[in-house]
Amino acid sequence: MPADSDTARARTHGGALLASELRVLFRRWRTWAMLAALASIPVLMAVVVRLSSEPPGPGEGPPFLDQVTNNGMFVAITALVLTTPLFLPLTVAVVSGDTIAGEASLGTLRYLLVAPAGRVRLLLVKYLSTVAFCLAASGTVLLTGWVIGAVLFGTGEATLLSGDTIGVGDAVVRSLLVGAHVTICMLGLAAVGLFISTLTDAGVGAMAAVAVLTIVAQVLGQLDQLAWLHPWLFTHHWLAFADLLREPVVWTSFTENALLQAGYVAFFGALAHGRFGTKDVLS
Amino acid sequence: MFMARTWSRWLPAAAVPLVVAGSVAFAAQAGADELPERTPEDVLTLLADRDHQPFSGEFEQTSDLGLPQLPGGMDLPDADGDAAAVTAALEALTSDHSGRVFVGEQDQARLQVFESFGERDVIVNGDEVWVYDSDENAVTHATVPADDRTATPDQRFTPDEVADQVIEAVGPSTELSVREDVEVAGRAAYDLVLTPRTDATLVGEVAIAVDGETGQPLRVSVTARGADAPAFQIGYTSLDRGAPDADLFEFTPPAGAEVEEIAAPAEDQGRDAAEHPEPTVVGSGWESVAILDADGGGITSEPLLAQLTTAVDGGRLLGTDLVNVLIADDGRVLVGAVPLERLQAAAAE
């Protein structure tokens, strides 16, 4: 592969490409609008709980909501429970579906490939910038959740699912783990999105396809008749982060999920490489 | 030349599934260590004579009894008394569970049963017994002298307990055999098979995987007569023979939890006995039928349970692959791992 043998110059070029890609991504209004929408969820939730006259009882509302009044940290975790099935993947679908198809529809893909970067490098850079967005997205929910929770409810001891009590420091570690799990969950989806994005020149079409796929995978995950398929769905472990809130932590689902997502990244990354490498770039 | 180049671009995409399939097959194939030959009686002795050892393990329970799965944690508005107990038992049997067991020094144990966003814990530490339900944020506490403690309902759901209950029931009506060694939770194990000597039961066989080294039961599977796959299975998925952290057995009720103190067990048992009369057992071994003088009519009036049962001669039948329950017209409830005819005969006697 010529691009890989192009030593240091090409590598710095790749770095520059990534930096410019990130600049473009995080200068877009669309990116900030999506992050703001994500941030509004923990804020809305915390304000509503604060203003309501009766605190939610155990088992009422979304998971962990009743814990919120004891420890503001749980706002972040409840917000992640709410955003993981739909809202978060939707934003990842928009960013990942747009990677190649968006450039193609704008007619800028040709110019990106004129630079001696190579198609493999461009794919990698596009994927890494999507990963950066996944981090930013779950980080936004987590951070806003922490801040609004600490402001409205204060921090204190938190109760794990097993009934054990942990202090503030431990609660921060646990919610960071949950954030890490959710981010890893989005990596497979981002790779699927990258592949779909190489299939078409219509950015919106690719975004919609990725979003629909997310829903379809979750619906399939609900059907008992397809139990054999469930462990292979990229959505299978999305809400399994409850296992990180037990005492001691159950790592099985976290590691299984990481392996599964790695498999998705490898497979759909390879598919994207195959498709993009053989594609005629006309626009 | 150009074609070859095009194809080589797709090679990685073809290689990834192969690598995944290969590693999955390899992991599944990793064979068990060779264990010395043992007769069924030796394996039974190994199982019965095992020493108390600290360990921690994750377990899984799956059941496919041929019943529709009841939605877990469902609240039945007007279910109370017997109907609620039956629904709870059905829920426990028809849904799959996973969880963890920690066993420390003598009289130290902790059981965790996982739900998707919840957990039920039973912690035993010396005389102290704590039960925690995260959905309700409710704690139940009892002080029970270790001597007169019986297993709490939740404790029945560990492979150890299930195996002990099965072994207790083994009598002359059972044929014992040992199949090819199996691997459970990374341990080489004997596969002890219990086959009923009679045709008058729904149970085809019960297989217990017994750890070849320690004698600990690692998995129990019950297969219905004529079926290929187990209708009920409970087993460890991973096992760690190290002593668990002692802090796990120290339980302090979390802030805001409702704590209910349960009185001394003697009194408790008295109350229990009044509510749930002891069943009469007819027949023996695999063919035994338990007859409860409960108010069966109340159970069938529960719409959900009425839907699960079918009308048969002499009452209504709740039929599963392993167990039949006949709610007789006179309100008695007959339970047994036997065909319907046997239940009807027992009801008529």
From TrEMBL, chain A:
Origin: domain of life: Bacteria
Keywords: Membrane, Transmembrane, Transmembrane helix
Keyword tRNA processing: no
Keyword Transmembrane: yes
Membrane-spanning segments: 32-53, 73-95, 127-153, 173-196, 203-223, 258-276
Name used for this protein in its record: ABC transporter permease
Protein's organism: Occultella gossypii
